[in-house]
Design brief:
The chain is α+β, with helices and mostly antiparallel strands. Helices cover about 40% and strands about 25% of the residues. Helix 1 packs parallel to helix 2, helix 1 runs antiparallel to helix 3 and helix 5 crosses helix 6. The protein binds cytidine-5'-monophosphate.
């Protein structure tokens, strides 16, 4: 049986990097949001053994380095299934774009595999397996608006933000996430050492790791406060909008929960290390803001930069401006949990 699935992308609505944990990962707080841009995957299980990845894009690994390979290998064992798994990836999302392309591909191939072998793992087992393969995988088992904590792998469904028009700019550069994290550490260490030297008359009195940890934790606690205040405002809302933000009797201020979140000042910490290295990405963000985006940001560690717009017309106009300056840009919408789940298999 051949199973075809859509493998959607995500953007990050704010991303706060915390201290380095004993396991080497960085503590993280972020809000993931699934969007309508996607790759297409065809998965089939035939006679034989092994896993075969087919993709025309030479940048996509065809071996164990591919997240699809790693999750399918684990899933076949957990499902006690046999056969040769062939995964064909039609790549439309950028590689190393910060849109979770590879992670989404892995989860989509896992869900397609379950359908192909007509067996399913329980939800918690699926989440565990996904987290073993990468921090950005579990979010794709939930979809919609998702809170990510831990090192990004611990995910909680949030009340869905109402669908909103989104322009995703895909500059022609790839950003390595581990390298961006390393840059963040180096930068924070330099900044904190410098301020300690000034404050203490020339001598650091604490290790830089300790300083990084303290500073990072404080900022994450603050983001946590902002998010809980925002969430409780949503649930106390007596305007009749409900948690979806869509008023009972029409569209009206449908975007307001998202605007509220944006007004809280959410930011992506990766911008601080990625923009100095790729100044053209900062310029893309400025173009989006000038074109009327009510929020624009780097997604994950980039290189994709997105803008959120009040309507499709404004989004199309902004995308046109970017394309005229030679930047690939696509117009899409954010996907609610329900839309995401339905459209994976439709
Ligand atoms: O989990 P994932 O495979 O996506 O992570 C890739 C690399 O990114 C990790 O090996 C680690 O170097 C870095 N990382 C991190 N902190 C996170 C997530 C990823 O340092 N929260």
């Amino acid at each position: 049986m051949l199973v075809t699935v859509r493998s959607f992308a995500k953007i990050n609505l704010g991303l706060c990097i915390g201290p380095v944990r004993p396991d080497g990962y960085h503590e993280l707080r972020t809000v993931y949001q699934t969007i309508g841009l996607h790759d297409i995957l065809h998965v089939q299980v035939t006679r034989g053994t092994g896993i075969e990845i087919r993709c025309e894009d030479p940048r996509v690994p065809k071996d164990q380095a591919n997240t699809c390979y790693r999750i399918v290998e684990r899933a076949m064992a957990a499902l006690k299934a046999r056969g040769r798994v062939i995964i064909e990836i039609e790549k439309r999302l950028p590689v190393q774009g910060g849109l979770g392309g590879a992670s989404g591909n892995a989860v989509a191939s896992f869900l397609a595999l379950e359908r192909a072998v007509q067996k399913q793992l329980p939800g918690p087992e699926k989440l565990r397996l996904a987290a073993e393969v990468g921090s950005d995988l579990p979010l794709f088992l939930i979809g919609g608006t998702v809170l990510g904590v831990g090192h990004g792998e611990e995910v909680y469904p949030l009340p869905d933000l109402p669908p909103v028009s989104c322009v995703v700019a895909m500059p022609d550069v790839g950003v390595s996430t581990p390298k961006a994290f390393a840059e963040w550490d180096a930068r924070l260490e330099a900044v904190e050492l410098r301020s300690t030297w000034t404050a203490e008359g020339g001598r650091p009195y604490m290790s830089s790791a300790k300083l990084t940890g303290t500073n990072g934790s404080d900022r994450m606690v603050e983001l946590g406060r902002v998010l809980s205040a925002w969430l409780s405002a949503q649930s106390n809302d007596k305007s009749g909008k409900g948690l979806s933000g869509v008023p009972a009797g029409g569209r009206g201020r449908a975007e307001s929960p998202l605007l509220d979140l944006v007004r809280t000042g959410i930011e992506n910490d990766f911008e601080q290390v990625v923009f100095p290295q790729y100044p053209e990405l900062r310029e893309v963000k400025s173009v989006l803001v000038r074109a009327g985006a009510f929020y624009a940001s780097l997604s994950g560690s980039g290189s994709a930069v997105y803008g959120l717009f009040r309507n499709r017309e404004a989004a199309e106009k902004a995308a046109g401006e970017l394309r005229r300056s030679g930047i690939e840009a696509r117009v899409t919408k954010t996907l609610t949990r329900r839309q995401y789940r339905k459209r994976i298999f439709d």
